[in-house]
Amino acid sequence: MQPKILLVDDREDNLLAMETILQPDGYRISKANSGREALKILLVEFDFALILMDVKMPNLDGFETASLIYEREKLKHVPIIFITANIYGEANLFKGYRAGAVDYIYKPINPELLRVKVSVLVDLYRKNRQLLAQEQKLVSINKSLEQEIHERKVSEEKITSLNRELVENIARLESANKDLDLFAFMASHDLQAPLRKVRMFSDRLSSKYHDVLDEDGKLYLDRIQEVCKRMQGLVNDILEFSKISSDNERFEDVDLNELIQEVLAEMEQQIQDKHAKITIEKLPRLNVNPALIRPLFINLISNALKYSNKGIDPVIRISSDMKCEDQATDDKIPALKYCRIMVTDNGIGFDQKYAEEIFHMFRRLHPSTLYEGTGIGLALAKQIVHKHHGFISARSEINRGTTIIISLPVKDHSSQPVQSSFLTS
Fold first, then answer.
1. How many degrees, rounded to 5, is the angle at CA 109 between CA 106 and CA 114?
2. Which residues have a Cβ under 8 Å from the Cβ of 146 and sit 6 or more positions away?
3. Higher-confidence residue: 252 or 93?
4. 35 and which of 60, 102, 326, 349 could share a cystine (Cβ 3.0–4.6 Å)?
5. What is d(CA 225, CA 233) in angstroms, rounded to the nearest whole number?
6. pTM of the model
7. How far apart are CA 196 and CA 276, in angstroms?
8. Calpha distance 211→205 (Å, rounded)
9. 120 phi and psi, to 5 degrees?
């Protein structure tokens, strides 16, 4: 992944000069003409390796911009180098370092010095990124451990020792997962109170002073309210995601037809606003957790409505069939039977190469400025399906729609879906 660098300067020629110096090193360059523009960029992008920022700028100078940047927890790790034409005294230098600067570069810029300083900080960024790969390393260690167990079956003593290590690793993983779930729940819950206050006071400000604000003031207020709305959605999604792991195994025999009708009734206004036509084929009864299956269908139908083609009414079809997975090695063990539920739409679709990535947490294929959302919905759907010991996948083609396929195990082999259909709009 190419390291990203943010350049901030009110003069276009300075931005062009720095970009020309750094581009040969393969960095991805983003540019901002003011402190405010830099803050707007940082509202949606956090993964910058470095920020190069001019000190003397109108409205917000470099020191003020740096202080605002470091108020956000997600940005505190991003180093800032100040660019200045003045040789400050110790007091001003201290002010810059207190604002968050890690270094200064004086104008006129020495290209080699700039490249060296940037390369040092980018190398530190790359090393920090490597630390994030610990989870993958742990999975790799477990796989190696399983392979070692297989290779040393001849030694009972070694097998016992390796099994004990494997159990300990699994226990640590389960403990870590529980801690992560608890952390996500507590963090999201604790964010609710201040977020509600921000929304409440911004609403009051809008209702009382909206007419006396200038255009910039109205724009900033609208953006505050929009960001609060997105943050509320993110917090709610994280809370919903954290509840899945702790949800009790409350499985029961459920008529999916009745459950989906309840979902459609709940989403009636959203469906009408989109002028959507939803066709539902007769679905079977399955042994599922209704508290989890309901948000699963809400997420899938919401996605189909959200990513519809402009000017074309959404058409969504929900169908099912039965499939036997003959994975048994013993004739006495029956083949597993699954019910496949397909949710098909005529929306914008996506490149099939991203079919697995869309189920990753916070993975979005389309910018949030065009399609609202948090990137958690399909990750939530995957967790719910796995909770039912099932599988989820996607088939799609750009501008040709998407089909989400859910495979859920069937305990009662006599349960067969009857093929019929009716329309909901």
1. 95
2. 166
3. 252
4. 60
5. 12
6. 0.43
7. 33
8. 10
9. -65, -45
Q: Is the pLDDT reported for residue 148 higher than 90?
A: no
Q: From the centroid of its chain, how far is CA 314?
A: 25
**How big is the chain, counted in residues?**
425
Q: Which ranges of 3-61 would DSSP assign to H, the alpha helix?
A: 12-22, 35-44
Report the C-alpha dihedral over residues 142, 148, 153, 158, rounded to 10 degrees.
-90
Confidence of residue 47 (pLDDT cuts 50, 70, 90): confident
- The CA R_g of the chain, rounded to the nearest whole Å, is 27
Helix axes 290-306, 377-387, angle to 10 degrees: 150
**What are 311's two structure tokens?**
């000017």
Sorted by sequence, the CB contacts under 8 Å of residue 306 that are 6+ apart come out as 371, 372, 373
- Which helix (H) or strand (E) is 247 found in, with range? none
Rounded to an integer, the average pLDDT of 372-377 is 64
Q: Is cis: bond before 108, omega within 30 of 0? A: yes
- Phi, then psi, of 152 in degrees rounded to 5: -115, 35
| Domains, in order of start, for the chain | 4-131 (3.40.50.2300), 136-246 (1.10.287), 252-424 (3.30.565.10)
d(CA 228, CA 196): 9
pLDDT tens digits, one per residue of 3-29: 999 999 999 999 999 999 999 999 999
